[in-house]
Amino acid sequence: MTDADSDNQTEELTFTRFDRMSTTYPDRTAVVYLGERFSYSRLRDLSERFAAALASLGLQKSDRVMIYIPNCIQWVIAFLGIQKLGAVIVPVAPIYTSHELEYLIRDSGTQTIICMDTNFGYVKEVMESTELQRVIVTNLVDLLPLWKRWLGVLFDKIPSGKVDRSGRVHRFKSLLNHPPLAHPVKIDPMQDLSYMLYTGGTTGFPKGVPGNHAGMTSYVNDVTDDVAGERLLEGKDVYIAVNPLFHIMALGLFMSVSLNKGNTAILMPAPQVDAILESIERYRVRWLLGVPALYRMILDNDRLDRYDLTSLVYCFCGGDVLPVEIYNRWQKHFGIPIYQVYGSTEVGHVCYSRIDKQPKPGTIGLPLGSRECVIVDPVSLDPVATGESGELLVSSPYTVKGYWNKPDETARTCVEIDGKVYCRMGDFVREDEDGELYYVERSADLIKHKGYRISASEVEAVLQDHPTVIGACVVGIPDDRVGERIKAIVVLKEDARGVGGADLIRWCSQHLAAYKVPAYIEFRDMLPKSKVGKLLRREIRDEERRRITKE
User: Fold this and answer.
1) Separation of alpha carbons 416 and 402, rounded Å
2) Average pLDDT, the chain
3) What would the pLDDT profile of 491-547 be if each residue is shown by its tens digit?
C-alpha cells in the first residue's frame, strides 16, 4: 500500500463523514431511539453542543472521557462530541462494578465519566480514590419528549437512581443547552487518539488498547465502500443496532452502514428479542448485526412467525464463530444467509464475508483491504502452508502498535516480521485456496461467552483475591447457546472451612461484570503446572472437553 493510498484512506474521518451526511441529508432520520426520531441535523447540533460544553468544563484535546452507559442516544451524542473536541473516548460496559471501574479509570487517566443515574453509586465509590474531576449523569429517557417520560414514570417503566449534587456532578441534558462548538479542533489522523478500549490481559488486568483516528477510519471505509458497496443504499437504508456500542464490532458497523452513509439506525437499549423483531418489522430493517446467541434466540422464539421480517437482506454475525447448525436453520427459515465478521480490540475489524456471493459455512471471511493477515507456526512464527492451521497475525499501517502502559504485554503480542509489526490474535485459523479464513480454535487464555472475549486470568485473579483461595484455573466449556460457559477450578487453603461454590460466585459477582462470573465452580486439591510453575490451563480445558465428549 502506497503513502498516497494511506492518505486517501484517512482523509475523511468517521465523524467528518457523518458531518457531510448531515449536510446532504439534514432532515433524514439518523437514529430512532425508543420511538423518538433524531434527524441528522439535530444529531449534529446536539453533538456540537456537547463538545462545546465539555470544552467549557475544561476538557482539552487528548483528554480521556469514559462512556459508562448502555446503548442510548446520549451514547451517540457523546461519541460524536468527544471526537469533535479531539478528546479520547474510553467506552466500557455499563454493568462493570466499582472494582473494575477504579482500575480502568486509573489506568486510562480518565478525569471525566458519563454514567447513568442508576450506576452513579459505583462511580461515587471510586471518586475519592481516583483522579475523577467530572461526572456527567443522565437517564435512559432524558432526551425523550415530556409526555413519554411521564408515561414511563406513570407505569414505573423507567429505572432511576439517586445522584448527589456537587460541583463535580453535571447533568447531560443541561450541557446540551450550551452553544455549539464554534471552531473545529485540528486532528492528525495518525498521531491523535480516537479511543481507548480495554481487553483481557494475561496478567489478570485488562489491557488498554489505544486507537488512532486513522485506524478506525480505515476499516469503516473498507466496510462502507468495499464490503457493502452499491448494495448499501445511501440515504435510504435501515440498520438495527442491537450489540453494545462499547464493543468495537458494533460501533464500527454502526458508523459504516448508517451514520457514514446517511442511513437510519434503530438503536436498541437492550437485546430483547421481541422488541428487536417488532422494530425490524416496523422500520423495514435491511441490515442486522448479532452474535450467535442472538440468532439462536430469534430462531427459538415461539412468536417468530408473527413478525414480518421479509425486509431483512444482510445479516452479519460477529463476536464468535457461527455454528453451522444456526447458519443452516437461518438460511432455511428466511432464505438468506448470515455473513461472518471477525476482528479484535487490538486491530479493529479484520475479515468479512463478501455479500456478493453465498458465504461458505464456517468461514470468517476475507481480510479487509487495510488489514494484512498471515498464518504462522506459533513457536517459530514461520508461515504455514495453505490449508494448514496456525496462529493468525494481523498488521495494518493505520493502527497503533501496542498496549497502553503495558510494555511486557506489548512484547508478547506485537512481533516484527520482515519490517512490519504484527499483532498476535491468539486465534488459530486456516486459509483455503480462495484466501478465505476458517476459525480452528482460540488461545486457552480467552473465553468467548455471549460474544464477549473474557480473560481467564482476570477471573482467576479475582478468585485468588478471596482469603480462602490459594489457586484457580478458569476455562471455557463449549455450549451451543452461549459459545462457552465459564467454569472455575479452585484450590482452597488447608484451613478453609465452610466455603462453597455459591460463596465464590457471590464474591465474583461483587468484583466482576455479570458476564464474567463463572457459571459453576469445582474444587480440587491441586492444579496442573509446568516445571517452571506456569498454570497449564489448556490441560484443564482439554480434560473438560473430553468429559463432554464421553457424556
Assistant:
1) 12
2) 90
3) 998 888 889 999 999 999 999 999 999 998 999 998 887 554 567 777 888 888 888
- Residue (of 454, 453, 479, 486) closest to 320 by Cα position: 453
Query: Structural domain tally of the chain?
Result: 3
> If you write DSSP's letter for every residue of 132-150 in order, what string do you get?
--EEEEE-TTTTS-HHHHH
Assess contact for 334 and 307: CB atoms under 8 A. Answer: no
Dump pLDDT digits (tens) for 452-495: 878 888 898 899 889 999 889 999 998 888 888 999 999 998 88
318 neighbors 294 (Cβ within 8 angstroms): no
Contact 421, 413 (CB under 8 A): no
| SS3 (DSSP) at 185 | coil
- Grid cell, residue 523, equals 474444587
CATH code, domain carrying 413: 2.30.38.10
148 contacts 35 by C-beta, under 8 angstroms: yes
> pLDDT tens digit string along 210-245?
999 999 999 999 999 999 999 999 999 999 999 999
Output Rg (C-alpha) for the chain, integer angstroms: 23
Burial class (CB in 10 A: 0-12, 13-18, 19+), 361: middle
The residue whose grid cell reads 422488541 is 275
DSSP string, 92-135: --TT--HHHHHHHHHHHT--EEEEEGGGHHHHHHHTTTS---EE
Q: Is 428 in contact with 364 (CB distance < 8 Å)?
A: no
Report pLDDT for 482. Answer: 85
Residue 458 three-state SS? helix
Residue 538 belongs to domain with CATH number:
3.30.300.30
Judged against a pLDDT cut of 70, whether residue 179 lies above it is answered with yes
Give the residue from 512, 537, 517 showing the smallest Cα distance to 527: 537
Instruction: Point out the domain boundary residue: 442, 463, 484.
Output: 442
**476 and 421 in one domain?**
no
Of 17-26, 180-189, 449-458, minimum mean pLDDT range? 449-458
Contact call for residues 431 and 356 (beta carbons, < 8 A): no
Residue 48: what are its φ and ψ, rounded to 5°? Answer: -75, -30
The pLDDT score that the predictor gives to residue 223 is 95
3-state helix, strand, coil in the chain (%, to 5): 35, 25, 40
Phi/psi class of residue 188: alpha, beta or left (left: φ > 0; alpha: ψ in -120 to 50)?
Answer: beta
